[in-house]
């Protein structure tokens, strides 16, 4: 158990998109986290959808070569009323997964609801609520300002960071035993979140963190 608590990870989080792709690198060591980078890759100036996918593929390979993540965490099971939008997002997901596998980086998939539950305790949270919780958890030097952060980054960047942080929690850190917090309430108190809506998670949240649907 102690080895698990001190194990180091470098998680690449990807919020797949065909115009803006959010990406983030999160370093973890035990229950300690460090945000290395979080941003978006913008391909809106490229008209052809397949050219955009190609650019995303090569960009992700470069990111993997530069930061050498130990795993990729990506959002999947995207649902939209427009079937064409769903197909395009699935294409972006596939490109990100292919880029990771081309560099022998293991892939972990999380549904949007599971990610939101892991961060806020509410599977129907808004992007703004997710970003606000990440600012508290990770000490980001920014504030939520509409659909962007005060540092100018779109919320697709914090979505990617949320996916990486969700994987961090899924690893059992810091919710495992030893020197980490033993439950979500204790973790919330350590982070100064006591009394907030996420200080007492519901059963769905605990099931998500335990890896159950």
Give a structural overview:
The structure is a single chain. The protein is of the alpha/beta class. It has one domain (2-209): Ribonuclease H-like superfamily/Ribonuclease H (Nucleotidyltransferase, domain 5), CATH 3.30.420.10. It is 45% helix and 20% strand. The chain has helices at residues 2-6, 49-67, 83-102, 112-120, 127-138, 155-170, 184-190, 203-209; strands at residues 8-15, 20-29, 32-42, 71-75, 107-110, 144-145, 148-149. The strands form 2 sheets. A 5-stranded mixed sheet has the order 3-2-1-4-5, with helices on both faces. Helix 3 links the parallel strand 4 and strand 5 (107-110). Helix 5 (127-138) packs across helix 6. It is globular, with a radius of gyration of 17 Å.
Number of H/I helices: 8
How does the helix and strand content classify structurally?
alpha/beta
Q: Catalogue the unreliable spans.
A: 1-5, 173-187, 193-213
CATH architecture: 2-Layer Sandwich
- Helix fraction bin: 40-55%
Q: Assembly state here? A: single chain
> Which descriptor suits the 3D outline?
globular
Return Rg in Å: 17 Å
Main features:
globular, disordered C terminus, 213 residues, disordered N terminus, 45% helix, two-stranded antiparallel ribbon, single chain, 20% strand, alpha/beta, Nucleotidyltransferase, domain 5
In short:
The chain is of the alpha/beta class. It is 45% helix and 20% strand.
List the helices and strands and how they pair.
Blueprint: H1 2-6, E1 8-15, E2 20-29, E3 32-42, H2 49-67, E4 71-75, H3 83-102, E5 107-110, H4 112-120, H5 127-138, E6 144-145, E7 148-149, H6 155-170, H7 184-190, H8 203-209
Parallel strand pairs: 1-4, 4-5
Antiparallel strand pairs: 1-2, 2-3, 6-7
Helix pairs in contact: 2-3, 4-6, 4-8, 5-6
